[in-house]
Amino acid sequence: MLTADCEIMAVIKGNAYGHGAGLIAKELNRLGVFSFAVAALPEALELREHDIQGSILILGYTHPQNAGLLEHFDLTQAVVDYNYARQLSNYGAKIKAQVKIDTGMHRIGEDYHNIDNLKRIFALDNLDIEGTFSHFCVSDILDEESRQFTRQQIDNFDYALDALRKAGFNPGKCHIQASYGLLNYPDLTYDHVRIGTIIFGVPAEDGLVADTELDLKPVLSLRARVTSVRELAIGETVSYGRTFTATRKTTVASVAIGYADGYPRILSGGKGFVLIHGQYAPIAGRVCMDQLIVDVTDITAVKPGDIVTLIGEDGDNRIAAEEVAGGAGFLVPELLSGLGHRLQRYYVD
Ligand SMILES: *Cc1c(COP(=O)(O)O)cnc(C)c1O
Question: Which of 114, 251, 262, 325 qualifies as a FRET site for 90, CA 20 to 30 Å off?
C-alpha cells in the first residue's frame, strides 16, 4: 500500500523505459524520490554522472571485479545468491547490498527455503545489508491459479524474513511489489514498492486490467518531422520491397524516424499509423532504418517540417503507447525501452 510508511523505489532501468534516465531521475529527485533501482552497473554510473541523489540499487549481476566502483559511487548491489555474496564480501571494504530471495520466479536470488545460506549471507563481514527483496512473476495475471501462486510467493518471502529475524538478523527494507504487484495486491505493507511501468503513466500491455484502476497519464510523446512530400500516380510503389502500390492518385509524406529509433518495423504496410494535423495517416510500405513513409492523401496541405505524432496527442486524437506496442506484439516497456538514443528527449512541464 502506498502509505507514509511505504517509500517508492523508482525503477529506471532501460534508460528509464526509454524516457531518458538522467533527466527522469533528476525530476524524481525534485519530486522527493531518493530511492532508485536499475538493472546494471553502467546504468547506475550514468545516474551518478548526472549527480542523482539517493540510493541506487543494481537489481542484476555486477561482476565482483567491479566492487571498487560499487564502493566509490555509493551503489547498492543486489546479492544474487550466497556464493556471489561471499565474492562481494571478499573485496574487503564495506559494500552496500540488498539480498534477493527467489520465492518462485527462479531467475536470480537465494532460495527462500535455504535459510542456512541466507543466514550465511547476513553473517558476512563486509556487506552492509540495507534490504531484502523478491519479485513476483504472475502478479499481473488475475486468474485463481496466478493469484494462488502470488500468495505463495508472499508466504515464502515472509517465511524467509521471519527466519532471519528469529536468527537475530535485520533484513532491512523489505519489498516485493513491482507495478502490478502494487495494483493487484495493494494491501501488502512492505517498506518499498519497486515500480517502473506505472510511474511513466502507461500500462504494461494493451488491454491489461488490474484490480486497482489508476488514471494513468502517459509521460511520453514520440514525434518526428515530415521531410518530403510527393504525388504518386496509380501503379507507383513506395519503399523497400515495393509492398505499397498506389491504387488512386496518392500523396505520401516521408518522416524522419525509423526502426533504428525503436519504431517497430513490424508496423509496416499500414499496421501502424501516425497523426499529422490531428488526423490519422497509415504507414505506406516498409518502415526503413531511419525513415518511414505515410499516406497523407486524405490530409490537406502536408508539407516538409510538419510535426508527426507517433505516440501521443495531436488535436482531438491520440495514439497510445499501448496501441503501438500492441500492434507490434510488444509489451509497452519493450517498446519504450527500445526507443533509440539518437531521439532527442525534451522535457515539457
Ligand atoms: C523491472 C523490474 C521492476 C519494475 O517492474 P514494473 O513492472 O515495470 O514496475 C521491479 N523489480 C524488478 C526486479 C525488475 O526487474
Answer: 114
Tell me the catalytic residues: 13, 240
Q: Whose CA is nearest to atom 7 of ligand 1?
A: 179
Q: Tell me which residue of 218, 223, 247, 224 sits closest to 234, measured CA to CA.
A: 247
Instruction: Count CB-CB contacts under 10 A for residue 127.
Output: 22
Q: Is 78 in the pocket of ligand 1 (CB under 6 A)?
A: no
Residue closest via CA to ligand 1's atom 10 equals 178
Coil, strand or helix at 316: coil
Joined grid coordinates for residue 186? 495493494
Question: Does ligand 1 have an atom closer than 6 angstroms to the CB of 184?
Answer: no
DSSP secondary structure letters along 106-148: -SSSEETT-HHHHHHHHH-SSEEEEEEE---SSTT--SHHHHH
CA distances for 283 relative to 83, 149, 160, 252, 310, angstroms: 52, 42, 53, 9, 11
The three grid cell numbers given for residue 303, joined into one nine-digit string: 508539407
CA of 66 to the centre of ligand 1 (A): 23
Phi/psi region, residue 16 (left: phi>0; alpha: psi -120 to 50; beta: rest), is: left
Q: What is the number of alpha carbons within 13 Å of residue 24 lying toward its C-beta? A: 24
pLDDT confidence of residue 1 = 60
Residue 211 amino acid letter: D
Question: What is residue 4's predicted lDDT score, i.e. its pLDDT?
Answer: 73
Dist. CA 164 → ligand 1 center (Å): 25
User: What's the confidence (pLDDT) of residue 44?
Assistant: 98
Q: Is the CB of 59 under 6 A from ligand 1?
A: yes
Q: Which atom of ligand 1 is nearest to the CA of 180?
A: 7
User: Is the C-beta atom of 57 inside 6 A of ligand 1?
Assistant: no
- Local mean pLDDT, 10-residue blocks, the chain (349 residues): 84 98 96 97 98 98 98 98 97 97 97 98 98 98 98 98 98 98 97 98 95 93 98 98 98 98 98 98 98 98 98 98 98 98 92
